[in-house]
Model the fold of this input.
Amino acid sequence: MSADPSTATTIREVAAQAGVSTATVSRVLSGKGYATESVRKLVFDAAQALNYRPSRQARALRRAKTKSIAVLVNDLSNPVHHEFLRGVEHIANQADYTVLVADSQRNSELESQILSRLLAEGIDGILMAGSRPTADIVDAFSKRNIPIMPFVGRDGQVRELEWEKAEAIASREMVEHLLNLGHRRVAIVVAAPDRVKSRTLIRRSRLDIPRTELAKVSGTLIQVQVEIRDLYRSCLSHLAALFGGTSPPTAVIVSGHRLLPAVLMAIRDCHLQIPADVSLVAYGDSEWAMAFQPALSVVSHDVYVEAIGYTRTLLAMLGDCDLSELEGTEVISRFTPRASCAPPRI
Done:
């Protein structure tokens, strides 16, 4: 079926083209309820092919708009989030939307309070950067037809796994690089989940892949859990004990950019040099990571492009972004080896 510019395409035609029900088309294009990524792609592709545009009357009846969206970050001090916010603002400004920014400070109670206030103020949609809401919050937003990106179902589970899949590829490349250099005993620094009141999304690739790949060559991954509230002291205490032991690691992986400064200071105060005494890789990139001497090896993706993709998808759900302009959220994660990695000292 092809689009006829002289005739308005109906939602039934879009459903037939996509091979789904009209209810599914309505749910996908309005941002109500759950649909798999494959179904959403079928609907968006069909709507674009048929040049489908919801009528203004239908959009107006759906609900009044405030022309505002919110971005909830879990830690505004993390420089990675700055690029994400720039991407959101870039697209939102083009569509004449106001962007509200809130910082949950890695605290689940504060996060719930913020989300409740945003719901009460009547925002049109919300983007989550680094955390996810609880099922009851998701349900409350869903009942008000307020979409959440990355898409979250009523059970609180994030439905889009593209980022984790892409990062998994780069994580394997990173571990392979360390193995080729000769590293077999590697530490990974993570925030302690039992102490930090946060729903931060810890991608499985950051723990499972290094552990699995090292095990294949009889290597060891040492998980170091640090307290985020007293980050430097916690890093220094754990790393001093680790490097002072009989079998210290020869490489350190830092699971998040927010942890990196404290880890670097702790390594310095343990009187160790990078990479002469220990190699280092971090998740997340920034200009200062490149400027640091030696420049730091990183696993990263373009969070600016990530934010653009998510924001365009959110505005398409709200009917304020042309489907022809909608870009997918596929972003290529990459491992960038720099001078902070070297063969272990024998």
